[in-house]
Amino acid sequence: MDAALRALERAQTTAHGDVADDADDGVRVTSTSATGRRGNARDDARELMRACDALTTTYRARLTRSALGARVLACIERGSRAALDDGRIDVAERACEVLGEACAPTSSRRAAARAATLEAQGDVAQAENIYNDVLKENECDVRARKGLIACARSKGATEEARNALIAYVETFGADADAWYELGHIYAESGAYDECLFCYEEVLLAM
User: Fold this and answer.
1) If 0-12 CB within 10 Å is exposed, 13-18 middle and 19+ buried, where does residue 53 land?
2) DSSP code of 18?
3) Residue 162's closest CA among 129, 133, 184, 144?
4) What percent of the chain has pLDDT over 70?
5) pLDDT grade, residue 82 (50/70/90)?
6) CB under 8 A, 24+ apart: contacts of 179-184
7) Which has more confidence, 50 or 120?
């Protein structure tokens, strides 16, 4: 299993860079149906998804809280999101099961992975309920706030998503992905001055 864990962490580093054990960067802000947008990012994400798939399939019985550190859990979480982006809901569901068993019942990571999978399956309302429950405990939870934005995009509520993103970047101004998505929304509506401002913020945040 150690070799599989190392493979997962290598894929995680390639796809997202070296991050802290419980970092929230990279959490989805776009709908699960959104297409990739950064060069080789899709290939890197697929490698992460494959590593997550191999780990959660082959070593499922041994993946307990005592065996998994926070960094590995972060890798599995991101592998789950990569699976959703690639349409592999089966892989995402297995990752959710592992996170459900390995994380505390109140874990934001556990809840967000489950909610994102529900969104991908078309159950946006239930996903929103999960995110809102998380926010009742912590109104600044990044996973939940970005998850609600993704749900708004998924159901076509563009104005709701835009307003939520504006509020989000006022607090988390260094989040390049959020600025990118806000710029994309402005571009869709023809608000090009606002779009350009957002893309400038992306460059500053990178």
Assistant:
1) buried
2) S
3) 184
4) 67
5) confident
6) 179/205, 180/37, 181/29, 181/30, 181/149, 181/153
7) 120
- CA-CA distance, 80 to 74, in Å (whole number)? 10
pLDDT digits (tens, 9 = 90+) for 87-115: 889 888 888 888 887 788 888 989 999 99
**CB under 8 Å to 198, separation ≥6 — which residues?**
179, 180, 182, 183, 186
Query: DSSP H helical segments within 86-191, as ranges?
Result: 89-102, 108-120, 124-137, 142-154, 158-171, 176-188
CA 70, 76, 80, 82 torsion: positive or negative?
A: positive
Given the structure tokens 């090009």, which residue do they identify? Answer: 192
Residue indicated by tokens 């190392």: 6
